[in-house]
Design brief:
heterodimer, A: alpha/beta, ABC transporter transmembrane region fold, Rossmann fold, six-stranded mixed beta sheet, 58% helix, B: alpha/beta, elongated
Amino acid sequence: MRSLAAASAAGTASAIAGIGLLATSGWLITRASQRPPIFELSVAIGMVQAFALGRGLSRYLQRLTVHGAVLGRLTRLRLWLFDRIEELVPNGLPGRASGALLSGFLSDAEAVVEALAKGFNALVDSGASLGAGVLLVALLDPGAAAVLLTVGVLMVLTAILTSRLGRASARAATTLRSELAEAVVEALVTAPELLAYDRQDLVAERLEQIHRAARGLATRQGLVAGSARLLTTWLGGAGLIGTLLAAVAARSSGRLSPVLLAVVALVALVALDQVAALPLALASTGSGNAAARRLGELAGLRAPAREPAFDHPPPGPANWVALDDVVVFPPLDPGAGPILDGISLATTPGQRLALVGPSGAGKTTVLSLLLHFLEPSKGRVTVGGVETSEMTRAGLAGRLGWVPPETPIFSASLRSNLQLAGPQAGDQDLVVALRRVGLEPWFQLLPSGLDTRLGAGGSAVSAGERQRLGLARALLSRAELLLLDEPGAHLDPSTAMATLEELLAAADTRSVVLVTHDQATVDLVDEVVSLRAGRVVGRRTRGGHPTDEAMRHLAGRPGQGEDGPAVPPGGFEPPTVALEGRRSDPLS
Amino acid sequence: MTTAPGAVTRAVRGPRVGSADRRLLAAWTVRRSVAASVLLGMASAAAVVVQALALATILAQEMAGSSGLPLAALAWLGGAAVARGLCLLSGEVVAGRSAEAAKADLRRRLLGAVLQQAPSGVPPIAEVATVAGRGLDALDTYVGRYLPNLVLAVLVPLGLAAVIGGLDWVSGVVVLVVLALFPLFAILVGEASGALARERWAQVEALGGRILDVFEGLAVLKAYGRSRHQRGEIARAGEQLRLASISTLRVAFLSALVLETLASVSVALLAVPLGLRLLNGSVRLSTALAVLVVAPEVFLPLRRASSEFHDSTEGLAAVERAESLMRGWGATPVSPGGPAEGRAPAPWAGVHPAPDPALCQVALRQVVVRHRDRRAAVLAAAELTLEPGQTVVLLGANGAGKSTALRLLAGLATPESGTVTVGGRDVRELDPASWRRRLGYLPERPAVIADTLAANLRLAAPTASDDQLYQALHEVGAGRLLAALPQGLGTLVGAGGRPLSAGERQLLALARVGLRPASLYLLDEPTVHLDDESEETIVAALRRQLAQRTALIVTHRPAVARLGHRVMTLERGRFRELEGPWAAMVAQLAGELP
């Protein structure tokens, strides 16, 4: 608040300098035409120079103080974002918590505070100019000041009202934009067949329709914004004439000298010009509205799980889990069908369970339930015999070691990257964990051992090393239960297999729940549960007799693209980013 | 992608004007409307001059002690305001429309280019959609305001300097000198502050990256109960970021300070000599007042253009992103200048009518295809011959190149070397339309357009009757799908209509293939996403249809694989035939799969 007051003060000083510059210059010139002795002008000459220098300087100060104020707000807004996203991630966010989505929120926060700075500057500039102008004119001729004030206030009101008028077309623009996104996605998804059937014209046709609508909308928006500028400019012209007429009347009746009449006219000119600039300045804050709306939507999202106040630790080791008739609806779109539809599962202590099935079957959702990222609409989820909703985040954290498909590597030292899961672990423990996940040769080659910086700007980490680091983290967490989600997602099939084998060997006696779409990995676990469309469609324990080993190889890996890494798992569905809000299953 | 505050980013990055502008202006409608914006801006500046002259006349008359209202001058004053308002109104409309025209032009070219490449791989759909949509919105201010203002920043100051010079040549010279000083000062300040600002900006960017980094890993931090700890880190980094940003801005705003100061000092530089010259009567009062009122307007377009530098960087970034997608979405080229699979098919301009593949051999001869992001060839001198009437089934691991082989035969991709032949003739010598009429192609991702089910089917056969459509649907066992649709063939499907499941899409695409009078079927996983019952129906339908046709079928499903007269696999970029009875073949293959 204090910094905004300083910014207002600087803005006012700059407005006064602007008005003072033209007023004293005008006085200097008109007075000089009456040929007074030169010393009478010397004060005015000094003031002209002072105002000229002061204007630039006070503007500079205004810019700095305003940005100082909004940057402070940005810091707080970022922390709010952190808390909100922490509460929602990963299941409560629309789409994947991808870098694009998150940096979108971060730049939205910037856009909001920037619009705040612009809007503030616009209002201070026009308000202070009008106020200073009216005060100065009032000292010389109250009648002219009344005209100036009336017209100025009318202009401000016009500018604010018309900027509100533009919101309706802003909504239309949003609709049009999502229509466009859909058309583009459709065009790209259908491209091979359209080309094969020689019907590319359909894409061009649909695009042309949207462009026609966009042209119409642009014209409407231009008319709204333009009328704001037209009205304020016309009002400004009328205000100048009105002030002049009042001043001329005052001069005729001898209340105002002709030199001061010139001052009144020039002050009115500058003040009205500043107010007339308001519509354009307010329009430039428009991008902030869209950003604020997106943040508002984020604020309105329901958290998919609530942390209890007190931890209820499991009585024994938390190395067995159970899902009992669990139903889960997509947290963001409960109207859509369930992701999990009455699923029951149970493991024994130390057991290794693989969940297999095509994309969208609900495998990752099971892990999210165990991690208490998500709560079931119906049924019970227990870890070590206690419902996950009874355990605090800290309580669960010590018991579950999670390795997501794209384990994040933070741009920090290798040590802090590993200690993240086990802050108590010493260097020796870290090296042992690295050895157990097969990273010793890699570690030996690092330039500064545990102090080597990883991530952006640091040493490069390959997809395989990333997964192994994720597992090292999980081992260091001392969890008795490891949750591995698609450990081979970004590796070629043979490497994926070898990595998984090593990872499972490193897991040692710990219980494991493994999510994979690759049926070929099933020989490495004790039990395989096949999911399809949120239901269990098959179970097989080790020692059970698979029908035809070879057939499984052929039938396996549905939903994989021919181009390997170019296609994300589940890449057959239209991407969700472009179709905001249409997705029923936040997981893949 | 940076989380450095936008203001900092923009204040530090200088303007870049260049070839991207020229490419943007290439479209006639864009050029025309930018020119219109410039004309309207000049007209608006002219109205300001009229206003200044009228105001100066009125004030001079009042000084001379004239009685009566200066009606003529007041009328000019009002007229100038009316004209200026109209200029601004039309300017807004033109700005919006020119931005829209530029966006439409770029979008058309982007989509055209991406579709050209589409057959050779899966395009980054989300990215293209973002760039074509929200990404191009940065052009609103760039084309609508920045580009015309750039021209106006040159024309208006010079024009107004000429007007001032016409009124009083001494003042004209002063204005010109200050105008000439401006670039000099800008360069000096830019030199001094630029290096410092860039250095601090790098720090700002690094901090922004660190914050994003933590946000991206938030799920893991949450799982390990470390988010509290990291929140403190974010708070600290945010505070550092704020301080670094402010100290950057302190330097970056210096150039604006110089510009503002020059603008207001020029008013003082004009007013003081004018006052002194009025003392000895060497200049008229009305002239001096007119010069005084016009003077602040001289620098206004320059200040506006400089404050819109940000829009220039954002707009150019949008154009660059779009253009890099047009060039190709692959990560890196295989070798400098080397051909990649992703390159757009070269113009295919054959004229010979295509022979019937049901009657002659179709073959791949010594075909080489490479993915742009992989060094190894997907198909390396691959040889495959389809005898007339034969059904060949293609098995093999993912990424082995099976779909690529289908796309080559469909004429949707071009080999780096080698040829696709039909009846011994290079397929590229054939009339592409006549070749495509011979094909029934089922791609990896069947198309659903936002239209009725009938329109979706008629993609393949524009003239088919409703009866034929019904028959095609029943043929592939889509009777259940049809029964589930409220308006039957007239039901809207896809985006905005009834969404189709992956299996339903597959059925739709298969029905489409059935509608073609095709004699070569190229099917990519015809029963993927289908349950066993649907698979049976489709296998039965295919068995009937394949009797008089040649076919290449990629599949992982045993039931479909049994349709083949021959079973092939792809390994290390070459086709290899699997011999012997079915079970032996499968065992043989299974042993070799990773």
